[in-house]
Design brief:
Arc Repressor Mutant, subunit A; 3 domains; four-stranded antiparallel β-sheet
Length: 306
């Protein structure tokens, strides 16, 4: 049993000819259980293999769900990577989980399984959402321990990306698992009852991406959407005059004004006190009512202080 490992073969669907065989899926030498891997074809012609493995029988940190992307000819399209754990620390027994794998319309890959709980009856369904590259997952890892709900969250995420665009996968994941989840928990709401729907969140993220608003202003827009003050991020941004200032001349004028009014901070920064720079940035953002592009502010400020 210690020598078990997941392998695959690629077969031509028309002729039945074997194009590649006995391809080793895992890269590390680790004990695997006697259960076949799950293979899911991807829209671009590649496929993903998902399996679980266990290095030691009493260490739950080694009881992992693993995955790897392969090209259509069976060559590796990514390194092996860990998707999540299939048993929590101190789990009551180690029942081998069934794995399910699906690709969403936006290209993201959902991997789901039942994680073994600490007590009998504590087993729970979990899932992880991976980006189409597999080797890097949405957000930091879309931690399976954090995402322990039904697929409503995955559907919300998918619909958000339909508006925000797939390039914003990480940002969307952070908003959903961060700001949105915090609000839902605070008000004891399910995601289906969220006052901000996925299309509205997607529109908000799109405005961050094109630098219409900063991240700080985005939180104000999100709050306004939550309170029902507008039907879309664009409507709120326009009504409240929240567009980010990106005009270099306008930002430079603010920088010059703040530098002239705060000679003490300037002297401290030149004396090596880095915190003085943060104080100056804060004063500039205050003067701009939070609407100046933070990166431009920092770049101009450092240039003038050098």
């Amino acid at each position: 049993m210690d020598d078990d490992e997941p392998v695959l073969a690629v077969i031509n669907p028309t002729t039945g000819a074997v194009l590649a065989s006995n391809i080793e899926m895992q890269q590390s030498d680790t004990t695997t259980y006697e259960s076949p891997p799950v293979i899911q074809a991807l829209a671009d012609g590649r496929f993903i293999g998902v399996w679980y493995k266990n290095a030691t029988s009493d260490d739950t940190t080694s009881m992992t769900v693993q995955a790897r992307i392969f090209n259509a000819d069976g060559t590796a399209g990514s390194n092996e990577f860990q998707v999540g754990l299939w048993a929590v620390d101190g789990a009551d027994g180690y029942d081998v989980p069934n794995l399910t794998v699906e690709q969403l319309a936006g290209g993201e890959i959902v991997v789901g399984w039942v994680r073994n709980g600490a007590e009998a009856g504590d087993d729970e369904p979990v899932y992880v959402v991976l980006n189409v590259n597999g080797s890097a997952s949405v957000g930091t890892a879309y931690d399976a321990a954090a995402v322990t709900a039904s697929l409503e969250i995955a559907r919300y995420y998918e619909n958000t990306l339909k508006v925000a665009g797939n390039a914003q996968a990480k940002v969307a994941a952070n908003w959903i698992m961060g700001e949105l989840s915090a609000r839902l928990n605070r008000e004891d709401l399910d995601i289906e009852a969220a006052p901000v729907n996925p299309e509205q969140l997607g529109g908000l993220i799109a405005r961050i991406a094109d630098q219409t608003i900063s991240n700080a202003i985005a939180k104000k827009v999100f709050d306004a959407l939550w309170q029902g003050q507008g039907k879309s991020a664009d409507e709120i941004i326009e009504a409240q005059g929240l567009k980010q200032i990106t005009d270099t001349g306008a930002i430079e004028a603010l920088v010059d004004e703040v530098l002239a009014a705060n000679p003490g901070n300037v002297a401290e920064f030149k004396a090596g006190k880095e915190k003085a720079l943060n104080a100056l940035v804060g004063q500039i953002m205050k003067a701009a009512k939070g609407k100046a592009n933070p990166q431009q502010v920092n770049d101009l400020l450092k240039k003038k202080l050098s």
